[in-house]
Each structure stands twice: as structure tokens, then as C-alpha cells.
Amino acid sequence: MTGPADNILIQVKYKDVEKTFSGSPEEVWLLLNKFFREFLPSFEIASRLMLSIDLQKLANECDGIIAFSKEGPNLLVSKTRLTDNETLTLWLLAAYVGCKLGFIGCDCISREELQSKLGKSAKITSTRLGELVKNDMVVKTTDDKYRITTFGILQMQKDFIPKIKAKIG
User: Fold this and answer.
1) Theoretical Cys-Cys bridge with 108: which of 49, 79, 86, 145, CB 3.0 to 4.6 Å?
2) Residue 100 CB: number of other CB atoms within 10 A?
3) CA separation (Å) from 145 to 28, 95, 96, 133?
């Protein structure tokens, strides 16, 4: 029979999950196998269903469309070549990328600032932002600013950025 001196301790860390198994070698082996058999497949499935952004890929895709200076983000595409929604989401995307890369302090932009950048009336800007919120591309924050959503970023990568690049040639 095995005693406490024969017990082993195994600690498994996988991404954000940490699990410790202790006991006899046979018990730990069975628990460890059960963990890998039951937990990992469901964790992998859940990971594939989770929306996530590859910042390096996103930054590469934005090359030639947005840029940053000491004054902040800039669109390198004339707004006359963009729809209102493309312009608004591009500014919010620039804020996101700039914040993630440490160029600017916040990934949110006020409606007034977006209106100024769009060059349209308050009514048109509010209507377009409402459409983007309704389509889950953008969220309105508690301090009445706007931020692009993870879904919005992925939509930009899938649909908007290729269309914008095609427009600018």
C-alpha cells in the first residue's frame, strides 16, 4: 500500500485555467486523463467561438488607410471616397488601434468629435451612429462616447477594409 510519501502533485496550467491534482500516482493519472478528455475539447470549442482580434494582423491591414502622428490618429483616405458609415467606423477603428498600440490614451470618441471628422450635421452623424449601434458595430459608452466593438472590428477586416483598399486602388 502507498503512504503519503508516495503521493504526487501535478499542476496543469492551460491558458487561463489552472488545475492541481494530488494523490497516488494511479489517482493522479486517472484525474489528469479525465481533465484532458473532458475539459480540453470543450475549452477548444469555446475558444473557437470567442471573437478575438489579432492586433498585428489588424495593424498590417490598416497600413495605408490610417496612420498616427503626435497629434493623434489620421485617415489617409479622403472622406469623399468613403461612405459616412465607413468614415465613422474607420475613425473608431483608428482610435482602437491607436489605444492598443499606446499612441493615444482612449479608444472612445465623442459624437461631437466624430461629427467634426465626418463633416456632416449633428442629425446625420447621430443617425449614422445609431445605425452602427443597431448593427452591433459600435457601442455607446456610459460617458456618451462611442467605441468600435470586437464584432465591428472583425466586420471592418472582412468587409470594409477590402472595399476601402479597392476604392483607393
Assistant:
1) 145
2) 14
3) 52, 12, 13, 12
First to last CA, the chain: 76
Least confident of 46-50, 70-74, 161-165: 46-50
Which residue is listed with cell 492598443? 100
Query: Phi then psi for 78, rounded to 5 degrees?
Result: -60, 135
Measured CA distances, 141 to 38, 112, 137, 147, 153 (Å): 39, 14, 13, 7, 17
Longest pairwise C-alpha distance within the chain: 82
Cβ proximity of 106 and 73 under 8 Å: no
55-168 is classed in which CATH architecture? Orthogonal Bundle (1.10)
